Amino acid sequence: MNKKQIYKQLLNYAKQISENSYSPYSKFKVGSAVLCDGNKVFCGTNIENASYGLSMCAERVAIFTAIANGCKKIKAVAVYSKKGNVSPCGACRQVILEFSKNADIVYNTKETDFVVTKISKLLPKSFSKKTLKK
Ligand code: THU
Question: For the chain, which end, N or C, has fewer CB atoms within 10 Å of the first or last residue's CB respectively?
Fold first, then answer.
């Protein structure tokens, strides 16, 4: 499979899991699928709360699941929403960067089309663990 086919499949996983989204407040279902080293895939959805500020994005749920399962090197993050054009929010960008400086970010623009970009492009001049080193 070439990269385009792999990312299409990754988006398809994100689409499937988006059906499990718990989003009774925004009614905005988001799904995410993370491709790790070893080609393992972990998925997540957004999970909201009556205390709105406690809600969590699909990307972070997917990434934290990957980390908890022993996969700390992220190759790509796919994000799916029915409307399309959901590029990861600022908080998720910072979390993605923690686990990869070079991750591909994939999101659908329409039902079938998608774009691929880089986390370094979405979050330039970022704060990272490198800055903390003495
Ligand atoms: N959301 C995500 O899950 N990922 C994003 O990249 C943007 C926003 C969620 C958070 C909230 O549950 C809903 O979409 C509306 O903002």
Answer: C
